[in-house]
Design goal:
The structure is a homotetramer.
Chain A lengths: L1 H7 L6 H12 L6 H25 L6 H7 L4 H7 L3 H13 L2 H11 L4 H17 L5 H9 L4 H28 L8 H19 L2 H4 L6 H16 L13
Helix pairs in contact in A: 3-4, 3-6, 3-9, 4-5, 6-10, 7-8, 7-10, 8-10, 8-13, 9-11, 10-11, 11-13
Chain D binds a DNA duplex through α2 and α4.
DNA sequence: CATGAATGAGTGTTCATTCAT
DNA sequence: AATGAATGAACACTCATTCAT
């Protein structure tokens, strides 16, 4: 196709042109720029397709044929970019977790208001940036496959979980220092606060996809925040009878 | 059976006869019992083995050979009791969910004290009865495989999830009626309260099994309860400055 | 069951009786006469069941489970009488071919009338004695499995085919000697005469069992005989314009 | 395709260019052709191998491993072309029955001579075209497996048997109309005439393959024709004392 | 004798991986 | 770079055979 386009604009090719062409063809038809652009997009297209299928069927239940055809390429092509199914899996995980936590960190560092406001901000931002994204499939995928890929699980843990918890820890610490939050057991509180967020993501890609009584994400988060902020509120300081903000 | 019939029709046997008979028949009778017991125990042994492996590796990743050998039988034997891998999976799920929710329901109905105490009781009982059991693998398994077995997911949802939520709903309703809990959005609150429990179980059989910074279940639950009860406490009623019990 | 019947008629058993009984039981409950009779019938019941199934599904396609349950026994019992599936198959063949050819031979030897009449008699007797019997399944079975059991095929060939051909040969010879039949190539004629009989049997247990436009066996045989006798009739001798008898 | 498009738009290429191109591309083009040819030939190679083995061992007794290795490929390759063992079986049957009956029909329609000659021609042609071919295994295979594949048996019946009988019927009708043949029962006569042909094919792939006293096909057919034509000859018309031709 | 639970070798089928083009 | 035909190891499932009872 490419070649046809190329020669359609050169109806009077002479021998030298042909030699050039042949040289190109001998390189197994080297790809012009349009292809080039796609070529760079390929890995991302493949991991995107793979993410969806891994999340849906699990690692072992996913066929590379399906991944390839969902990405619009042949199965062989997949192996140009990934050495094995496992390598693809790892790429899916690693690609999925890179970007977001940086922003969270910036958010925390740059924030000027109260810890409550910051926590609210974090939770509210989590939904559009992760929870409502395909990225939200990652937690479910990682939970499902952790024991089949322990090293990867550790990597995920250290890169995502630990850093996510760091964000919450920073907020809690700030709130407790300022007296806005009552003193609580730090580490377990972090887990308890995060659990509903994670469960929401996991649910969405598991039971929620089957027997979904439509889930109102916004309401769920509002309730979550409400409960957590109430639960953290320092009774000695906060004005009584008022919802903590 | 034959033997039983035989002694029922001979009521005039005296002790010595029985000794003779018993000695003679011992190797005809006693071993069948062992066999019998084994035969009846087999399905449970197999589903137990299967549960462990399904939870660990996922459905597709589990080899029936492994299930069989973990149960101490050959692969063929497995097929005496289950028609297919899928049938085994379904049996694992169904067998796992039968027993516990009844007790929960009784607990709620029979409780005399405050809603807070009841909620505390529920959460505290959940751990030894489910969370600390192999049954706790079920949520993780179901989350992982829901989309591969949608009908089963619906069954699980209706049988376990819905009924579990009913328990919490009953408690919340009681507390809100009595004024012990402040008014909150019922349905989402239920989910938010349950999420940390479920996450704890899921975690235990996923990332927790790999990168477990030893998880202190008791402390986690104490914090969870603390946060929830604080968060639900009715500020108009509860004595200020005091941790809700 | 047997035992129950036995002790129901002896409500006042004393010790010695019990010793006798126990001795019997130690022999693993020796079988009374009713059983005995069945015991002798067992092999025949089993081969009968096996014949049907082998004919229907072929050797490899037949499950011993099915054979046993069609004969009303358990699979283990089958192995009390036959060492292996192959042994059962051989028994089926051997049992099926024993009886009939003797009679044919007697028929030929004792016959006084014309060769035509004898041939007609043979063909007509073939139907009720073999063709309309389960035995007619044997040719189909043997054809199907000959190459899987060459030695058995040779045995069958020598025992059935050769002897069957001998019968026809004797008749043809007699007819040719007497001038009733015109001279023909003996050996191939025998085959050509037998072929429709065999095909009829084979058909019945193969395509005829599926897409049977109801097959009128009598008419088929009449036509066969008619064609053969016409075809063999000696034009120099037979009264012209008259159907040969 | 690319290459073709390329040269279509370059009509001014001269011979030398083409030589260059051909040399360069030779290893890009010529080998695909070989592949292509193989790829298209594969199904036929596979069904050919399968036919042999199915005829020899029966459907259930044939291992796909053997089919594949007889065709010179691996077992997996077989599944690129056939969905299942059963699909392969059906392909074997369907592929085997397509071609020959058309010719027979043409033969009958175009024939000018006597019905006897036509019948002789049909029978004589049958041997080199079918009887002496691997196709002759089909009847044996179909007989053996009819009851395991009833729908296929019906298809075979309607496509092969019925049409084969139509050919004979047409000949008989012609001969009876012309007075060449005496009046006989049409339908059963067809069967009786065909039976020796079919038996010959079946025999060849069953007992004949084991205990073959070498079978003289030509002589067998001559006798068959001789007997049939004598048997059909109209005594009112045919010159007496003369073998019908 | 009779049973049927247990076995494990064998086979149909799938699918990750390779490689010639 | 891309394809897809080919491979073969792996696994679900079957069934002839054994054996404890």
């Amino acid at each position: 196709m490419t070649i046809i386009g190329l020669d359609e604009s050169n109806r009077s090719l002479i021998l030298t042109d042909w030699l050039v062409i042949n040289l190109c063809l001998m390189n197994l038809i080297s790809q012009p720029h349009i292809r080039q652009r796609r070529k760079e997009a390929r890995p991302a297209e493949l991991t995107a397709a793979a993410l969806e299928l891994f999340v849906e069927k699990g690692f072992a239940g996913t066929r590379l044929d399906d991944v390839a055809s969902r990405a619009g390429v042949s199965k062989g092509t997949l192996y140009l970019y990934f050495d094995s199914k496992e390598a693809l899996f790892k790429a899916v995980i690693q690609e999925g977790i890179v970007p977001v936590l940086e922003e969270g960190s910036d958010l925390v560092d740059g924030h000027k208001g109260s810890a409550s406001q910051l926590l609210r901000l974090m939770v509210e931002e989590w939904w559009p940036r992760i929870g409502d994204t395909h990225l939200a499939g990652l937690p479910k995928l990682m939970m499902s496959e952790a024991r089949n890929f322990p090293e990867l699980a550790i990597y995920y843990h250290d890169t995502v979980i630990v850093r996510g918890k760091n964000l919450i820890r920073a907020i809690l610490k700030r709130g407790m220092v300022s007296g806005e939050f009552r003193p609580v057991d730090m580490e377990t509180t972090i887990d308890v606060i995060l659990a509903p967020l994670l469960m929401q993501a996991i649910w969405r890609y598991s039971l929620g996809a089957c027997c979904g009584t439509r889930h109102d994400a916004k309401r769920y988060q509002r309730t979550h925040l409400d409960l957590v902020l109430y639960g953290l509120a320092n009774p000695d300081q906060a004005p009584k009878g008022k919802t903590p903000k």
